Amino acid sequence: LHAWSDLSTHAAEELARTAPGSIPALELDAEANEVQGRWDAAEKDYRAILKENPRYPGIHFRLARLLLSRPNPAPDFQEQAKKELQEELGIDPSNAGAEYISGELARQMQDFPAAVEHFSKACTLDPNFGDALLGLGMTLLSEKKYEDAVAPLEKAVKLEPENPAGHYSLATAYARTGHKEAAEREFALQ
Q1: CA distance 85 to 135
Q2: Which of 153, 89, 84, 145 is nearest to 121 (CA)?
Q3: What pLDDT, in 10s, does the model give residues 116-157?
Q4: Which DSSP symbol is given to 70?
Q5: CA distances (Å), 60 to each of 84, 115, 162, in order?
C-alpha cells in the first residue's frame, strides 16, 4: 500500500511539473483544494477544466457538490447546483450520483414527483445505492404512497442496517400499511 501511495504521489508531482495546465493536473489540484476547504480555488480549477473541455465527464457533478458543500453559500446555490447537475446528466446520463443529488434537491424543495423520478433513476442505474433507495422511500412517504415506499425502504435497510433514518422510515411505512408487528420491530431497531 505504501508503495502505491509513493507511486501516486510521484506521478502527481511529475504531472504538476510537466503539464501543470493539463486537465488531469487541474483535476488533481481541484480535488486537493476541495478536500482542504479551499472552495474558490477548487471552483476555479473545475471551471478551467470546463473551459478546456465543456463536456468533460464528472466536472459539473463536482461543481454541484462543491456548491452544496460550501459554508455560507450564495443565495441561489441550490439553483446553481441544479443547473450543474442537469449539465452533468446531459453529458453522462448514467451518473447515479447526479440523479441522487438532483432527487435530494427536489425533495428539499418539496417537488416530490421530480424527486421520485430522480431517485428512481439513481436506483435503476445503481440498484444497491442505499441513500437513493432511502430517499425514494422517504419521498413516497411524503406523498402518502405508503405501500410503494415499503420495497425501497426494505432494501435500503438491508444495505445500510446501521442507518436509523432507514428503520424509522420503514417503521412508518409498515405502520401506515397495517403491519403493526413489523413496525414495532423497526421502531425498536431505530
Answers
A1: 17
A2: 89
A3: 999 999 999 999 999 999 999 999 999 999 999 999 999 999
A4: -
A5: 5, 20, 31
Question: Is residue 21 helix, strand or coil?
Answer: coil
Give residue for cell 441544479: 82
- Cβ atoms within 10 Å of 178's Cβ, excluding its own: 9
What is the sign of the dihedral through the CA atoms of 39, 89, 133 and 146?
positive
pTM as predicted: 0.85
String of DSSP letters for 25-43: HHHHHHHHHHHTT-HHHHH
What pLDDT is recorded for position 1?
A: 59
CA-CA distance, 79 to 189, in Å (whole number)? 37
